[in-house]
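Reviewers of the previous submission asked for a worked example of the structure-prediction workflow described in the proposal, so we include one complete record here. The input consisted solely of the amino acid sequence. No template or homolog information was supplied to the procedure at any stage.
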Amino acid sequence: MLNSNGVRELAYVVKIDNITPIEGYDRVELAHVGGWTIVVGKNEFHTGDLAVYFEIDSKLPEVEPFTNMEFLAKKHYKVKTQKMCKSLSQGLLMSAQNFNGEYYVDGDGTEYLHIKGKSYAEGEFLTADLGVTYAEPGDNKRKAAPADKYKRMAQRHGKLFSRQPYRWLMKRMWGKKLLFLFYGKKRDKRSSWPSYVVKTDEERVENMLWVLSDKSEWIATEKIDGTSTTFTMKRGHGFKKNEFLVCSRNVVFDKPDKKCFYETNVYTEMADKYDVETVLEFLLLAYPEAEWVTIQGETYGSGIQNRNYGLNNHEFAAFNLIMSHTGRWNSVAMYDKLIPLGIPCVPILNPQYVLPDTIDELREYVDSEASKIDGEMKEGIVFRSPDGTRSFKCVSPTYLMKYQ
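From that input alone, the workflow returned the following structure tokens.
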């Protein structure tokens, strides 16, 4: 689930929508949370219960109560998509009692789980509080929200900030601000994520089943399994030059040799391969009313993910063209604009797709055709509204079980 900043949360409080039996199995049953199904112990949960839900791709810390669960240790504390008891299980559910906590209702009738000294209502996040990270180490570098400026300050002065007076001050906001006056590091604006660019991530359909009732037309595009890549240029005025930035999900590579998450900097490699700076310069010339223009997409191929699409090199495919005065372009219009400029785009599967009534039908559609890139299994589909304002993704559980 994405939080208000567009960053994915891996652990949060949910209300269980339904519990259904699993035919042929007496000791387990199926819990339904939005579009997710999770195999749980018989009578462990009931419809309407609050629980802590851990999404797929999570890695749980090796501490209690997780270390008390033998099945988690066997999976190295990673939460993945799997088939259990002939049923699809995606995620993990735990009760407040698992954490020696409790469920309670306040005077206003709001339900809470009290865990480790804090209270959480439905929809509130526990990712950071419980120490949950991504299961794949590389994802923690590429996708995780960057540490705030106070944490970075403490990391830079680790030995000093390990002393008791500094630890005491760091527990208080006024103390953090005081320390920052002396030990804080001013950020180079050029090295900061551009404030006008929205980071790339799509909400999963499992977390927004209500969208299936929207019977307007959607543009269906193939989701490529790679690493998110952003190119942006801000118009310079007067004697200032246009500012060109290359970004991963969280890092701005303002220098070509800046440390990357891979052996080579695949982000600047793509910028050079497709001469993106020249393309953005052209777009700013073609649209003088634009203050900035952004191309976002996926870099994929050899060594980036488990799925290399049969490549021994790296390729890029755009999924967003955004301008300051227009917002995000319609995917078809983006395709028509960027392809002639030498920028590949994600394959458009259906420009007028109408959503089915159930998530099972949507998943069947996702798996119905192979990838347009290499003819093998595709990761999923991203659905975008024609006006470019809304989008979500449906990732194939079959794909996840094979590749992730």
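The first helix runs from residue 70 to 74. We consider this example representative of the routine output the project will generate in years two and three.
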